[in-house]
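Hey team,

Filing this mostly as a record. A colleague (T.K.) asked me to run one chain through the structure pipeline before their review meeting, and I want the input and output archived in the tracker in case anyone asks later how it was produced. No errors, nothing strange. Just documentation.

Input sequence:
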Amino acid sequence: MTNTILDLYSASPAKGYVDGLREECDRVLAGSDGIWTKNAVSRLSRVDSTIKESMRFSTFGIMALPRRIAAAEGFRIDSDIVIPKGTRLGVPMHEIHHDEDFYKDASSFDPFRFSRPYEIREANVGTTNAAEELDDVEFHGRSDLTTFSDAPTDQENQPPPDKPKRMPGTKQNSMVTGSDTFLGFGHGKHSCPGRFFAAHEMKLLFAHLVQHYDVEYMARRPDQQNFIDIKLPSSSATIRVRRRG
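Output structure:
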């Protein structure tokens, strides 16, 4: 959460990110009779996207998915390469998260990067310009893409004729959605099993922050600190906070 706060409040206030988050939190809470239920928290797509984008932009490590070769004979990649027992392996998470092949403007913090396609889809369901609107959105990360070819091919699993097929890129890509281009919670069967609970906790905390407090804009984001292969938020960073009337 520290990285998310530093990322958000060092982004230009003119872009309206905080106002957009506050509007969503107020709207969703009002629609849930003033109670943060599980379903209400799940509807905080902008908050979710902001946290996920911070996990992408300000990675907490240089490497992800650390593994050590345990087999006595090592691990053979091909006929010429054998990785010996005891070798430590990992995936270059920071480089993947900042790769322009996966994320447009990867070096920029865009809080609504992952929620934007979802919101456009929700706003245009049933309208004739929905697909056109989505064509103008840049989809980031392979797991963002849901194409018509991904739909079931057998007749039994086809959607009813009156139910529109999902358009490309419209699946909400939440922070708990792992992929080979987003490794914040790991990937595959070894993904963090507690990520769903952690996501709800973080979204509740962040919603409370933007609804009840003003945080002073920082002209420069405090640099992260590198410790071996871990990237930590600055231990000397300070922020000024004021409770909203």
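Quick notes for T.K.: The helical segments are 2-8, 17-30, 38-42, 45-57, 93-97, 116-124, 130-135, 195-212. The CA atoms of residues 209 and 215 lie 9 Å apart.
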